[in-house]
Amino acid sequence: MSAYQDFLAEKTHLGGDFGFDPLWMPDFLFDFQRSIIEWSLRKGRAAIFADCGLGKTPMQLVWAENVARHERKPVLILTPLAVSAQTLREAGKFSIEAGRSADGTPHPNITITNYERLCHFNPKDFAGVVCDESSILKNYDGATKAIVTEFMRTLPYRLLCTATASPNDYTELGTSSEALGYMGHMDMLGYFFRNEQNTIKPVIYRHRGQSFQRLEERAKWRFKYHAEQPFWRWVCSWARALRRPSDLGYPDDGFDLPPLIEQQTVIDCERPMDGKLFVLPAVGLREQREERRITITERCEAVAAKVAHDQPALVWCHLNQEGDLLEKLIPGAVQVKGSQSDEEKEERLLAFANGEARVLVTKPRIGGFGLNLQHCAHITFFPSHSYEQYYQGIRRCWRFGQTRPVVVDLITTEGELEVLKNLQRKAAAADRMFSELVAHMNDELHLRSDNPYTQQERIPPWL
């Protein structure tokens, strides 16, 4: 009978337990944080999908401290640019021994570095690794995802932390599973999903030595018949998701968000696009981009008029021309852009986070992840089709712990109104994902991965 149960266990895709019981649980943790840390330490390889402001930084620091004590070997924490300084400050606040490293030299207990510096480190020097803002892994073909996954592959203890594990596409959860050492991304697709082409791998086209994937291939994965519930149960076997403490059955005292005030300003495009005699609304992605370039001056002037002269403001842009013009138009603005060195970017980001710079102008892909900017309550945004960039950009300021209403000024053109509708659609998809995770997580807390039998099997006398 035990052999048959072992056979069934091999067929069940549920994450196992590879960790240990906690060695140290400090008093500064909330009850829901303590519960998540205890679970993730017993798992050994786990993911925490918690909303902004729920304390992922202290949770990952306590997790790393326990692993370092248990294995008597350092733990590496990977963070986005400038977030390592905030993580180090949080470690000092909670009296946890940690240090930053940029050249690959490990500190005795916890080592903190940026993703950009990972190439200097050797995984053999560490017992575990924490990926802060681990949504950086969501791109299956991404270079950073490949580097981080390979680095984590041989480490016994792994923790992923992010608020946007899969912004609006469930299949992106496979990259998190692969990094943790569970089911691979392509294996997950083949086990739980099917696409309309009835193939496992997407169609790849090659041109002049480069690979291209048709955009319409990406969103055509569908759950197999009766596979949706097993999929969410599988995810909940290695991940915990919560938008508020009550998702885990704890009170929400102290975790209330202030109002979010979204104001929309539509800029008229007064110049016709190239090749056209009249001004017409943009249709399609190409025309939307052209209209965005045509209206750079008008849109940036509208942003400058919205930014107060005596209050902090976070100004998001997407084009270099936008950033340069905004820096000139807004008094006291500091820009962070791609051409700057990592050291200069970090210095300017921290200057704004510490209140030394009044206005920050940058792109979401540069400064939109991990930073705690609760001192600011005014954001301006040029909408794009990336829901994750919008969500993370807003959540730098609108997060648990913010005491003032947060005002978001959306500056767009008439042709980009469809972009806002697309963002709303993606927001609904992301909300459904979190709702499914929370619901199945609560069920999984009461489920067992095995099925003990109470009756002894009887062998017929004629055998």
Structure, briefly:
The protein is of the alpha/beta class and 463 residues long. The chain is built from 15 helices and 17 strands.
**Mean pLDDT reading:** 83
> Roughly how many Å is the radius of gyration?
24 Å
CATH class of the largest domain: Alpha Beta
Separation, N- and C-terminal Cα atoms: 18 Å
Q: Strand portion, in percent?
A: 15-25%
- Can you count the beta strands? 17
Characterize the largest beta sheet: strand count, sense, and whether it forms a barrel.
7 strands, parallel
Question: What coarse outline follows from CA principal-axis ratios?
Answer: globular
Number of helices: 15
Protein described:
- By secondary structure, the chain is of the alpha/beta class.
- It is globular.
- It folds into 2 domains: 245 residues, Tandem AAA-ATPase domain (Rossmann fold), CATH 3.40.50; 165 residues, 3-Layer(aba) Sandwich (Rossmann fold).
- α5 packs parallel to α6 and α10 packs across α11.
- It contains 15 helices and 17 strands.
- It has a 7-stranded parallel β-sheet, sandwiched between helices. Strands 12-17-16-13-15-14 form a 6-stranded parallel β-sheet, with helices on both faces. A two-stranded antiparallel sheet has the order 7-10.
- β14, α12 and β15 form a beta-alpha-beta unit.
- It starts with a helix and ends in a 19-residue tail after the last helix.
